[in-house]
Amino acid sequence: MKEEIKQRLQKNEIWQRGLYMLFFIIIYGGTKLLITGIMLFQFITIILTGKMNDYLLKFGQNLSTYIYQIARFLVFSSEQRPFPFSEWPDGEPNQ
Description:
By secondary structure, the protein is mainly alpha-helical. Helix content is 71%, strand content 0%. The radius of gyration is 18 Å and the shape is elongated.
């Protein structure tokens, strides 16, 4: 049993994925601040103009999809690394 664990600990793929996960945890944390900013800006825009900012609405959707991709990668539901290692999402998430 100990030998199996030792062999797994020596695999570079595991440590590489761990570094990617750490990278995406940091990005995930930063996106919370960005979402808060988008939310506040959209709210103020609606109050002042009576309509939503369409560009920000599209960016918010793409950012939500990006966060979904990060979460799937972090919980091992996907091996596809999100942006910047793949294309920026456009639209709703693909299953």
